[in-house]
Amino acid sequence: MGYFVDVTKSGGDAIRAYRKIKRKIKDDRFIETLREKQHYRKPSEIAREKKKQARITIKRNQAKSNWKDPSKVRQR
């Protein structure tokens, strides 16, 4: 797997080419994958993290839906 950006096509701007490469690497999740694979994680630990993230997502979505609908907003 390699990342390549032609500097001549991007107007010869090295900074712009560097930003494009950084964006490609970020979109590819290359660095995150390397960090995840540095240490062994038990399957139960991974499942626990997924459940925790799901709870956070559900809570966030509920808060957003309550915010949009004034009838569901709690009165003080």
Q: Topology of this protein?
A:
Blueprint (H helix, E strand, L loop, with lengths): L13 H15 L1 H7 L6 H26 L8
Describe it:
With 76 residues, this protein is mainly alpha-helical. 63% of the residues lie in helices and 0% in strands. The chain is built from 3 helices and no strands. The protein is flat, with a radius of gyration of 21 Å.
Question: Could you give the distance between the termini?
Answer: 57 Å
The radius of gyration is 21 Å
| Percent strand | under 5%
Q: Given the helix and strand composition, which structural class is it?
A: mainly alpha
N-to-C SSE series? HHH
Question: Which ranges are low-confidence, i.e. pLDDT below 50, for 5 or more consecutive residues?
Answer: none
Largest sheet: none
**Mean residue pLDDT:** 82
Q: How many DSSP helices?
A: 3
Specify the overall morphology.
flat
Q: How many E strands? A: 0
Oligomer: single chain
